[in-house]
Structure formats: structure tokens, C-alpha cells
Amino acid sequence: MTAGASDTADRAEHIERFGSHGVWGWWGQFSPEEVAQVEELGYGAIWLGGSPKHLGPIRKVLAATKDITVATGIVNIWNTDAAAIADDFLALEADFPGRFYLGIGAGHPEATAEYTRPYDGVSGYLDVLDEKGVPAQRRILAALGPRMLALSAERALGAHPYLTPPAHTAVARQVLGDGVLLAPEHKVVLDTDPEAARAVGRPPVDQPYLHLRNYTNNLKRLGYTDADIENGGSDALIDALVAHGDATTVRAALDAHLAAGADHVAVQVLGSTTPVEQFAAVIGA
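-> C-alpha cells emitted (285 positions)
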């Protein structure tokens, strides 16, 4: 087997670890009991978002589970030190080998005073991770536009787009090419009343994402207009970004990402105080 073939096979093994579906929650959202239940349901990965400044709490999730993949979605490069994050990664790898994947990203210019050129910032962060020995295939990049998507194929296992419809997944796959992880996040509301579901889904989409230009620019690249984005988002936009209906309908909307070229879709449940029950309904549909 050539070196290139070996690298391709190795990457494929990493991608396979994620399975077709995962769960996405805010940093600290899930209790140890809940993450254990998620693993028992058969999900392939647990994604933790919210720009954590260190990886300490990841240890609790790994300790509460047996084999499920755990990933950050994402660590913000502007509020964390790359060398310190690398040390955290290596400590987790020593205790839970092969299970943790480091998702990083440049966050939002509106929220970060230090924000400069996101491509250059992420590249420099990756340089430090390289120097510290964090393997490229254990890294995932938050990516929406073509340059960051290309970087995720070149210097990481792949991409974790956030707040994207299946139409973006199709475009992203074209940029990434084959054999690169594509793992979009998608929000869901299990409610068969469209108006009630939109009432739950619209606020967390509108604030803050429809006021952040990296997200609005991405939506415009997909053909959405200012009219779609203003005033909390049009019904068509909210329906594209928040799957709703019964479990079968929601599962079909999630699986549209897989049909468009995703390897994995990370499911974020909105509006429920018992998310594990919702996760169970979706994976069982």
C-alpha cells in the first residue's frame, strides 16, 4: 500500500468513527447520565459547542461514556491559547485514546475584538497544533465558505458547518472532494404544528446568527435574500434551518444532508427539557 493509499485508509477509519448521526449540545448542557444514554441510543458522536476556553469538562463526557466519539464544535481560536489546547488534547488522548476530536474555528467578527483574517488566524493556530503533535486527522474546522472548506480538507479531517441547509452540504462536498469528513449541524423541533415549531426555532436562529455576517453571507451565497434574513427570518429560511414535524419527517430532513454528500449530521434539539427523549425519537424513526 502506498503512503497516499495508507493516508486515505486512515482518514476513512476516522470518518467511520462518527457514524451517520450525532448529537449537538451547548458546552455543559448534557449530564453524565444523558451522554451515557445518548451512547446507548446508537449515536456515533457527541458535539459540544459554545467556545470553551479549555478542554477540562470534555473529560467528564469521555469518562461517562465507553466508546462514543466526542468533539468540540467549536473551540474559538481567539479566546484560547493553541499550545495550551494542544496540551489538553494530548492529556485526553493519553487517558481516552482515539475518542476525542478537536473542532476549532474563528468564531464571529462581531463577538471578537481580536478578529482579523480568519483564514490566516486558523492557519496559524494549526501551525502550533502541528508543532505540539496534534494529528491533522484528529482536527475538524468550522467552515462555511470555500477557502475555509478547502483548508479543512488540506489540514484537518474535515469540516463542521453550522446553521446550514442541505443545499450548502452539496456545495461543501464539491469543494472538499471525496474522503474528507463533512459533518453539518442541524436544528430540530419535534412538533407537527408548523407555527408552533417556528415559534421555538426562530429565536435561536435569529439571535445571534441572522445578525452575524459570516452566516448571513453564507446564506446569501445559497440564494437567500435580505428579505429572508430580516425580521427574524422568513418561514422558508427557518424551515430550511430548523427541521420540524414528527420524528419521521424530521429524520428525513436530517438525512437530506447525507443524500447531499455529508458523512454525518449533528442533531441539535430545540425547545425540550428532555432532549434524550427527542434524540431517541429521531434515531428510531
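The longest strand covers residues 21-26.
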